[in-house]
Design brief:
2 copies of one chain form a homodimer. Chain A is α/β, with parallel strands linked by helices. Chain A has 13 helices and 17 strands.
Chain lengths: 414, 414
């Protein structure tokens, strides 16, 4: 089964905004065994919208429209879809009454521009919208002799998601042939995409029936496995078998085999070991602490730390001797080590992380170029330190540095 | 002049990836006076791609294809566009030679699957790609009797951006009627979108010739003004006049009138006043420091601070008396104030910021619900503190809190 998604709204054709609803819908449709084959973004022009609707109806089994259902004269989806289908529109008196009640409950009077929100395409089922005033519509019928399902959803993500999950998913499932889908997400830290892929591609290429999508970020590679089979067990077996082989190949470079984030995994390990963590960050400026504390409940294992941006604070908060900084420089193996050890002893945490480096774009020297970062991890057994030259801009260097720090903590606790 | 943008690649039809190149191209096209009217995302299917190309060529003056120019059998853009135009393809021997040289320089041999990267659509100008192996193509001609410009660009953002800016922009400018465009970006902190809009809409609605786009984030509203006129002066005058009226209406709620970020503005002010800043963050966990240090050169005015996630560290790093925490609670007006004053005196910075609150989703109580945050700013003149109940999830509460803190610093220095 194929679907097309059409997002409507001139604001989605500016340099500032992007359709994101379609990612949600694609995930949901994939779970029903439906493939999204074309996405279109079109402005508030009745002619263009009708043209786009007609082409989609000719090509695809399911066509989902998002947006353009509101009360303004720019909201043309109902009219354009009716035009494309070659059917009329009726004003639903019952809907009109409910709209008036909704407005009255909020102390407003229903104004004439709102009446069009009660317009229903001939043959459509109305999808009530508990989260907004524009209802959706569901149409199942023939177009040029072929069976089609047409769905109109409101544009605001909160309204769209609720309406799809509560009113469209089961309707679609009842209509479509049963689909048995299994997915798995595997994640790898601090290995380049091409290196990971060169090791894993020979494995997943043997699983033609499992769709493998690779996403790469700074210091992070993610494998999304997707399998559709004749039974749930068969689908699950296939992704699990492939996931197992990838796990065997990558070993402990793989930090997650069920989609957890690196921050979550580090939190699990710290709790499991009954350990606590403190950080002293220079070039990452708080990013490591921010990532750790983005997890709710992180206060159980994260005590805090210091952002030691100035040399004085490196001494004040992490006890780095001023003489060491002037001798070796703030960006050095010695200062990185001292930051980790100093913050650990100062806070009494089980583990201490120290980061110092040149995030750029300025501040680089021939000896210590932009991207040079030292990440140290201090524990009761001693201190380990990594020296790296990370590529990319300031943001990327900072991200890489925190990714390495989290991965070092993970490996330490494994 | 109208344009359509077509992004090609099955990975763009998964729940994981999104076309972002089109935002860049839209900005560039708008600057040339070209409006983007439809965007399409299509997979690696020759039939669908040809169909999409034909519809676009019928409707729009300029059609830009992105991606699908590589060496694999999934790279079908050249063939599909030639099909749609009804013309042939020739293999360019000169291109083939250059490809072979490029490969040889990297120590590789040109394999047969790469030959198709030397395929050129009849009538096309080749656009060399210094950043990758797939060249682009430029075709100017008639389609069904109408003048059309067709551009094929590679998918990787780095390659696409360089090729457009270096090889397409001037070509387009030479072809299109001259366009005189002026833009302005205005930003407001810590005012709700509907409140800002209710005050500003009566103003910008009088400027029908200036396109005003409003973007709202947590504690941030941005106005993008866009004007096209017969001369550059006229366009600039119109956006400047409207910007001036919006500035008058919003007063010092407006923090930027040329697009700068709040972090940048705070940095400008601190340097202008020869002042320094330190922070003590509890619930924001380093996010405030991370935002401040995302600006290159922030070490000139930001000394650092402490992430005081545990109560012990509130005492250890910011000197908050343990008795105060047990008496009033860690999330309290008193502790917020003590954090700001403590970190200021401890670091010797001109200004000290303290943040404590309940970011959620857990940890709320009837007295101190999720979203309750105290942000304090200490200076030589004393300490000011704000109590807020921010809406939304953990991420949003944390963002709002740092936005308020930055805005308090800005207002203090104004």
């Amino acid at each position: 089964m194929n679907a097309e998604i059409i997002a409507i709204g001139s604001e989605l054709l500016t340099p500032f905004r992007q359709d994101t609803n379609s990612l949600f819908l694609t995930e949901r449709l994939n779970q029903l065994g439906v493939e999204v084959v074309i996405k279109t973004i079109v402005g508030d022009s009745r002619e263009r919208l009708t043209s786009v609707a007609q082409h989609a109806l000719l090509r695809s089994d399911i066509v989902i429209f998002m947006g353009g259902l509101g009360p303004t004269e720019d909201d043309l989806t109902r009219e354009a879809v009716a035009d494309a289908l070659g059917v009329g529109i009726r004003r639903d008196e019952d809907l009109l009454k409910k709209l008036a009640e909704r407005f009255a409950a909020r102390g407003y009077k229903l104004t004439p521009n709102n009446y069009q929100q009660a317009d229903v395409i001939e043959g459509a089922v109305v999808l009530p919208n508990p989260n907004g005033s524009a209802p959706g519509q569901w149409i199942k019928g023939k177009y040029e002799g072929r069976e089609r399902i047409v769905i109109l959803l409101p544009g605001p993500p909160f309204e769209l998601k609720a309406m799809f999950d509560e009113q469209c998913r089961d309707r679609l499932r009842a209509t479509l042939p049963p689909a048995f889908i299994a997915t798995r997400v595997l994640k790898v830290a601090m290995m380049g995409e091409s290196l990971v892929d060169s090791r894993v591609a020979p494995i997943y290429k043997q699983y033609k029936d499992v769709q493998t999508t690779i996403l790469a970020g700074a210091g992070d590679v993610q494998f999304n496995l997707f399998s559709q089979a004749d039974t749930m067990e068969a689908a699950q077996d296939r992704v699990d078998e492939l996931a197992g082989k990838i796990e065997d190949e990558l070993g402990d470079a793989l930090y997650s085999s069920k989609g957890e984030s690196l921050e979550q995994i580090v939190g699990y390990y710290l709790q499991m070991r009954n350990a606590t963590l403190a950080v002293a960050e220079s070039c990452t400026g708080g990013l490591l602490a921010e990532r750790i504390t983005s997890i709710s409940g992180s206060s159980r294992y994260f005590v805090g730390g210091a952002i030691v941006y100035s040399n004085e604070l490196k001494t004040e908060f992490a006890g780095v001797p001023a003489g060491m900084i002037s001798k070796y420089g703030a960006v050095s193996r010695e200062v990185g080590t001292a930051l980790a050890e100093g913050i650990r002893s100062r806070t009494g945490a089980t583990l201490g992380v120290g980061i110092t480096g040149v995030a750029g774009p300025t501040g680089g020297t021939p000896e210590k170029p932009v991207g040079r970062v030292y990440v140290a991890l201090a524990s009761a057994e001693g201190t380990e330190i990594e020296e790296r030259n990370f590529p990319g801009d300031r943001k990327r260097v900072r991200w890489f540095s925190t990714q390495l720090a989290l991965d070092m903590v993970r490996r330490k606790l494994m």
